[in-house]
């Protein structure tokens, strides 16, 4: 998966914004101001960080130890770094992006979730 495919998929999610808060080499995707995905633009192959349920994160790291690592510069318990060198199926990556997005949405306050639901 390349950066364009990753970026385009993230932007299909409701109320997503993209920013460069950590400099020009780190593209961040947020929902309602909360980060759910990060891409290191200066890494080859592309590396992305995604939020993940802690138990699922450990399972994924065991099953894909060369391509799914504890989150680089993130909470190792709640974030994974995926190395996108072609060994992870695109469907799996899309699923993990959605999982990350959903975890962040679930963690929003009731007021924020209601505001998100009311957005077009």
Care to describe what's here?
By secondary structure, the protein is α+β, with helices and mostly antiparallel strands. The protein has a single domain (3-107), classed as Aspartate Aminotransferase, domain 1, CATH 3.90.1150.30. 38% of the residues lie in helices and 27% in strands. The chain has four helices and six strands. A six-stranded antiparallel sheet has the order 1-2-3-4-6-5, with helices on one face. The longest helix is centred in the C-terminal third of the chain and has 17 residues, at 90-106. The model has no long low-confidence stretch (mean pLDDT 94).
SSE layout:
Elements: H1 3-11, E1 16-19, E2 26-31, E3 34-40, E4 46-51, H2 54-63, E5 68-70, E6 79-84, H3 90-106, H4 110-118
Antiparallel strand pairs: 1-2, 2-3, 3-4, 4-6, 5-6
CATH architecture: Alpha-Beta Complex
What Rg is obtained from the alpha carbons, in whole angstroms? 14 Å
Biggest sheet record? 6 strands, antiparallel
Please count the beta strands (DSSP E, at least 2 residues each).
6
Briefly say what this structure is.
By secondary structure, the protein is α+β, with helices and mostly antiparallel strands. The chain has four helices and six strands; from the N terminus they run αββββαββαα. Helix content is about 40%, strand content about 25%.
Relevant terms:
Aspartate Aminotransferase, domain 1; alpha+beta; globular; DNA binding; 38% helix; DNA-binding; 6-stranded antiparallel sheet; YjbR
